[in-house]
Amino acid sequence: MLAGPGILLLFILFILPAIAVFAIAATDWQLGAKSFSFVGLRNFELLWQDADFWHSMINTLAFVSVCVPVTVGLGLIVALLIEAESGFRAFYRAVHFLPFMATMAAAAIAWESLLHPTIGLLNQILRSFGVQGTNWLRDENTVLPVLGAIFVWKNLGYAMLLFLAGLKTIPSDLYDAAEVDGADGPLSRLATVTLPLLGPIAMFALVVVALRAFEVFDIIKVLTQGGPGKASEMLLYTLYVESFEYLRTGYGAAVSVVFLLIVIGLTLLQVFVLDKRVHYQ
Does the entry feature the keyword Transferase, yes or no (predicted)? Predict the structure, then answer.
């Protein structure tokens, strides 16, 4: 009885909408239309044949494959440096965590000003060194790396905070035991004690940051609208365009199903593969 309200809300807010998405994906419904037809797997067939969808998927996978390890790796490095330095720890933690607290839309507007091709601070600094800048958000070769850099800047503090919490849980007597066994250098202690015991934290950070990378939408909407030439279009932005701009709700629901399957795949990877490799009980 105590769990009943929570289970009811879970069913209404999560399970029913997921079932509805699967149902809509099997129709040709357009947003606002009063009627629709059942088309079975037709939307998924169109999705398979859609070059724009695969371009969006490739962009998403490239974005995730680079941003996730960079964010988690830098978060670990920053956490180790902060923990090693006794002074100004609170200041360094606040500085690195502050971007994560800012709303992404507001941060994206600030980055748009910094990256402006003529009056942006970045290009002004480059010109002062005799280097000609570019239109970072309108160049197909630079737009995706720039969005990746913004993502890393935004989420670095979250990964850092997770690792700082993990470092606090490592008993100091393990380092003493490792020193007795010959691991008396910082790198050897890092390899034999710190990193193995941070395994569960690293696994959790990888999964959560990967989910956030797959869900990236706001910086694309604010800064690039998927351009130039769909060079920055990613999965959730494709879902938004198909469902709410082209009003192809059935097709957009099919994209949602693909995204849901990716999320389920990451969850299963965490539960059945990664958990067994990082826990030692």
Answer: no
| Pair 8, 212: CB distance under 8 Å | no
Cβ pair 233, 226 in contact under 8 A: yes
Per the structure, the complete domain to which residue 48 belongs is given by 39-278
Is the residue at 164 inside a domain? yes
What total of structural domains would you count in the chain? 1
Is the Cβ–Cβ distance between 198 and 167 less than 8 Å?
A: yes
- Which CATH number is 208's domain given? 1.10.3720.10
CA–CA separation, 27 and 238 (whole Å): 18
pLDDT (tens digit, 9 = 90+) per residue, 109-129?
Answer: 889 999 988 889 999 999 898
* Six-digit token string for 154: 């935004």
- CA atoms within 13 A of residue 85's CA, in its CB half-sphere: 13
SS3 state at 27: strand
229 falls within a domain: yes
DSSP-assigned states of every residue in 224-269: TTT-STTTT--HHHHHHIIIIIS--HHHHHHHHHHHHHHHHHHHHH
pTM: 0.89
